Every structure is written in C-alpha cells, then in structure tokens.
Amino acid sequence: MNEPFIRPMTIIETxxxxxxxAYFVGGAVRDVIIGRExxxxxxxTSAKPEEVMALFSKTILVGIEHGTVVVVLDGEQYEVTTFxxxxxxxxxxxxxxxxxxxxxxxxLERRDFTINAIAMNKDxxxxxxxxxxxxxxxxxxxxxxxxxxxxxxxxxxxxRALRFxxxxxxxxxxxxxxxxxEHKSLLQHVSVERITIEFEKMLSGPFVKKAIxxxxxxxxxxxxxxxxxxxxxxxxVANSHLGELxxxxxxxxxxxxxxxxxxxxxxxxxxxxxxxxxxxxxxAVAAFEAVSRDGWxxxxxxxxxxxxxxxxxxxxxxxxxxxxxxxAVKEWYDRLPIHSLKELAVKGTDLMSxxxxxxxxxxxxxxxxxxxxxxxxxxxxxxxxxxEWLKCNQQ
Length: 395
Ligand code: ATP
Ligand code: MG
Fold this sequence. Notes:
Elements: H1 3-6, H2 9-17, E1 22-25, H3 27-34, E2 42-45, H4 49-55, E3 59-63, E4 68-73, E5 76-82, E6 84-86, E7 98-100, H5 104-109, E8 119-120, E9 126-127, H6 132-138, E10 140-141, H7 147-153, H8 156-168, E11 171-172, H9 174-183, H10 192-204, H11 208-218, H12 231-239, H13 248-259, H14 264-270, H15 275-294, H16 298-319, H17 326-335, H18 348-355, H19 361-375, H20 383-393
Parallel strand pairs: 2-5, 10-11
Antiparallel strand pairs: 1-2, 1-8, 3-4, 4-5, 6-7, 8-9
Helix pairs in contact: 7-9, 8-10, 8-11, 11-12, 12-13, 13-15, 14-15, 15-16, 16-17
Bound molecules: adenosine-5'-triphosphate and magnesium ion (MG).
C-alpha cells in the first residue's frame, strides 16, 4: 500500500471493526492509479457522521448536512464522508440536501467523473463500477452517467472537467465536451468562489495550454467573470510559458497583462479574490509595467522590493522576454544602499534642526529627494554628505 494511505488505514480498520463499511475514494485513489503525487486522502463510509465522531478521539464536524467529519490523526486531517445520494439540485448548484445511504455504488454514482469514482478498500482492491480504471488507461475524462444531466445538476463540474484536463493532460470524452458546449451558460448560477478555486487549479496545471484551448473551443470563458469575448487573449495566455510562474499571484498578473485590463481591481474583485491578493497582484502588474517603461533601475528595485522584482523576472520568462537573471536581481537588491526609509541616515527632525524650519510639505518632499539620490547611488547615505548635498541643493 502506498505510503500516504498507511496512516489513515487505521480509520478504515476502526470503522470496519464497528460494523461499518469504509473505503478510500476520490482524487487519492485516482492519483495512485495514475502514479501521480497524492494530495488529500479522503474516506467514504456507511457510518453516519455521529457514529464516526463517536469512534475517534479528535474530530471536527465540517458539515453535518453533507455528512463530512474530519478525523485528526497525528496532526493530519482526513475527511470522512458518509455515503450519500444528493437530493434535489436547485438552480444548477450543489444540492441543498443530501440523503445518507448504505450503498457504496450509489455514493460513487453521484461523483463527477469516472476517474474520480473509484473506491479502494484497505487491502488495496479497487471497486470500480463505472470503469474509471479504463478511463485512466485511455486518458479520458467522462462524466458518471449522462453528461448533460450531470452538468445541469451542478454546473461547476464543467470547470472541474477543464481543470482535470490541465492537471492530467487527459482528453474530454466527446459527449462530455458536447454537453459543456451546450450547458456552459449554467456556470452563471454557480458561486464565484467555487469557480475561482477550479480556475486557479486550471491555470496551475502542467497541461494548461490544452485546457485553455478547450475552454476557447467550448466557449466556457464567456461565462466566467470578466472573460466574456476574450478568446484571443486566452490563446495568448495558453501560448505563454506558464510553467515559469511560481505563485498564484503571478498567474493572475499575467492574465491581467495579456487582457490589457485597465481596471485591475474591478476585474479581480469579480473573482472574489481577497483584498490582500488583489493588492499583491496589482503591485506585481505595476512593477512589470514600470520595468517595461524604464528598464531595470535601482529605484524600481527599491520601490517594489525583491519579491515583486522576482515576480517580474518570472513574468518576463513566461512571456519569453529577455530579462535579468534571478541571482543578478538578488545581488543588486542586496547591494542597494538602503532598503527602506528607516535606513536613511537622516530623519525629518534632523532636517528641521539643520534648517531651523518647521515641519510641512517641504519635509517629506526633501526626504523623498534624498531617498532617491541615495537609492540611485548619487549621494552617500551619511549625515555629513547629506548635509553638504542639502546646502548645494537648497531651493
Ligand atoms: P484534488 O486532488 O485536486 O483534491 P479531487 O478529485 O480529490 O482532486 P476534490 O475537489 O477534492 O477533487 O473532490 C473529491 C472528490 O469528490 C472528487 O474526486 C469527486 O469524486 C467528488 N466531487 C468533488 N466535487 C464534485 C462535484 N462538484 N460533483 C460531483 N462529485 C464531486
Ligand atoms: Mg481532493
């Protein structure tokens, strides 16, 4: 048995000892078959949430209505979800209610794609009523059951299909692809937060080019925030080297730059990103634009800082633009005479006592001038040198 399954095995054993069924399910089973790195290990069981909670010393009730309990073992969290069938779907979103059931097969049947509907018991045997293993062999993403119905139940599954294409490089099965073309507009009814999670995963996948090409072919982007009619820009995104990017923020920055989006904040707010992410993304875009305008300067390094400068280098690489080396940026940054105003050898109080003038706008203006001169290396960061410079440059 693969290493990530060994510890949570005791969860399955405990549940079985108490007369319940329990299996590994979902992404971890899929990924172990593919030979891909395994993410979270999830468990499905016939035990009801309260029964699960009674059997383990440390649990967190995530959502009684969805039957999910987190079991904490040695500090690791495992989601244990009661077999369930989903009740009525409302407005093309996740169902409002679920029914707990006793059949594993029925639980697998409500899952999105056949590759995600395989269960594994504690002996490593696979239970695969929808031929998910064959789909993995054939590298096909195919809904469990009729695609049109499944996308009408929960439209997010269309975005998930594209993100799995990006992560796995698989093909969309024909009916699944046709159903996306037909039902993409239902994405309007899905909460933006859920779409954003899948979209970010899609942008980060190694086969993102393939996924974006499919997005354009099916027209899904027309129903994503701020991307209506942006097929050409998205093709440019697909053709850039996204693998050069390291952070989620850089992916968003690249998207904004390709879209030539003037209203960055409004665009990112549509995706419901956090204010903190929005700030960082905008700062990266501003740094990129500053370098495009002025070339690399000490002033830009100082203003935007090392992390932002590295964002810019990675964006250049993604666009195939010749740029400075990572090490060169780091060394240059380290060599800057100062890294913040705090490191300047003079303070506002010094300027006031030297000039005998009271505080006012002149003070911050003068400090800013000194800061610029010091950063550019035209003025030594020493009190005496600065005092001398002030004498010669006093208006
Ligand atoms: P990852 O490795 O990225 O976590 P995953 O397949 O585990 O991929 P999750 O979002 O963690 O994806 O979902 C876990 C499992 O729950 C899926 O494998 C699938 O069986 C099921 N699932 C998740 N979302 C849906 C959905 N919208 N509709 C139907 N089944 C879903
Ligand atoms: Mg998962």
